[in-house]
């Protein structure tokens, strides 16, 4: 009779088969064919059946383990079996993960490989460690700290979000209310896709001999830095699914309205930024902020009002951004610098207007041969993340004139 670990391996292979079917259809931008749908439904039945078998087998293994335990002396309470079992498996998976980072999956015992290896031969990052990495990302990125985030379990989400509701007195059934869509018009793409983001981290072979505690700190820091910069760039200027990137809020694909400067405005001016501010609806200005490159902020910092007072204000508190015209400024260096026809700044409520989609299941592949001559081990990290503008009306982009 197969063990629960072997059953979990079987179920993982079923999941990978289901994922391959959907990804094939999505890559071709079509629905499932009749044959694919039949195969997918068969896999769903297999998944359900294996899940039931796993639950039964784990319960049986737990009962057997409890029967094998010595009888406790009086005064000792019974253990919480389910909680202890889950915590034990989490510890075993974590230990197996760090062993896999040192030796690769081939250096693990079969039962350890079952805990951390997926069907593609990649090492699964423990859930708690992945959570810690996600928690540290905002400190290294600009976009993630401004926008909303959502964890999903699929490869895509429908781009047209739930409608915004304009309320009114009376009954909805009478048709007296007007409902307005938060994604006006028809978006260029129907779905927002979760893309694969790859990073590379290296470590010296001698450092691998360190304790798990020190190695964990290194892994958390290196993994976070490996993906932070690329994610931040894509959130601002990513070109979309055609290029396997999220959609950036500064790009045409995001659908954010553009405030076009009149002729003769090829540099930043106070009046242009006032126009940008008041182009955003009042409900989104309450929690709005600017996003621009550092060079653009530098140009703003020398502008004065009619009384010779600087309109840019430096922050006097650590961790608080500088302000211009009373609104916070965030520096995103992928946004264009001041130049003719350049889109130099965005303004609005980014938390309401843009969303990052995180899909659980960060993985690592150990490259133990590629950098062997340098005495290094490489870790190829795969993180799955998507991003898109969900409320274009909450944001505005300032574009300077061509001449």
Automatic annotation (TrEMBL):
- Per UniProt, the ranges with Basic and acidic residues bias are 27-46, 53-63, 80-90
**Where is this chain primarily localised?**
virion
Highest rank taxon of the organism: Bacteria
Q: Where is this region: Disordered?
A: 24-90
Ranges for the Phage capsid-like C-terminal domain?
121-399
Q: Where in the cell is it found?
A: Virion
Cross-referenced SUPFAM superfamilies, in alphabetical order? Major capsid protein gp5 (SSF56563)
NCBIfam families, per database record: major_cap_HK97
What is the name of this protein?
A: Phage major capsid protein
